Amino acid sequence: MSYLAAAAFALGISAPAVGCVPVQTRIDNAIESREGRIARDLGDIVDSVYCVRTRTEYALDGAPEGTPTVSQAGHGTAFAYGRRDGHVYLVTNAHVVDDPETFREVEMVPGPGGFAVVVNTYTKVGEHTYLVDNVSDDDPSDDIEVEEVAKDDALDIAVIRTDSDIHVAGSYVRETGMHAHLGEDVYVVGYPRGRFSAVTRGMVSHPDFVDEDGERLDVLDVTSTFGNSGSPYFVRRGGTLYWAGTMGKIMPYRGNSATMFTLGTPLRLYSGLLDDVPAAAAPDAGDAGAGALPDSVPDDVSGGDE
Questions:
Q1: 97-139 confidence digits (pLDDT tens)
Q2: Is 41-56+69-95+128-276 CATH 2.40.10.120?
Q3: How far apart are CA 174 and CA 234, in angstroms?
């Protein structure tokens, strides 16, 4: 064989055929497609997460008629998960939307013999809950008032609803018996400090942990803080996000306020509450924007984007 023929032969076997895509390129494209889908799905979920403001009025026990009431406001997160009969249903923590019926305030009152300790008791006289832009929102014209329709104090879960046409995500899987698995990627979506919507990512550190009060919780190694109460969290399996529960507590390091773990209530513990409230049955998968998919999707679904 001549040198020219040998060179042509070498080039012929080393060059890929026309229309052939290298394996690594296909893998890279599949990964890019999957990551793009996760980003889009998270964006859809962010649009279904709302800042919740609960404003409660208290009256001083025994005060003369006409004495001004004391107002307190707190903030948290709510997730719109379903729509039916003109209502949109959201889930949050019970402590976000329910302030205590009474509270006491200790006051030091000067007197002829020094100071006396006076304990003032305040009783709730009114409470209203709204969806607002953020903690700094001082324009009530676009606030959306919501009502509480179901609650489980033991699980610290509440269902609220509105007749306003707000966004309900449909880009995740909801399974009644959902279990988070050790080491899975997890995303928390909420309003940290009530300031803005945010997604934080971490991992499942200890699923189905039983604390000293007998409460079953998922321990998540993911950043969260006050205002994230009521935030939904999702585990990722392949290219699909599964709604796994609702964040309710943070576990700080001993001796300081740095957050170590996020504690969440698994969805399977309160899934029935979401559907048992009036007109709150979850739509089927064919309902666009339902925010809930059938309970029959297997754990190893890859999202169909590969």
A1: 987 778 788 877 787 777 778 887 888 888 899 999 999 999 9
A2: yes
A3: 10
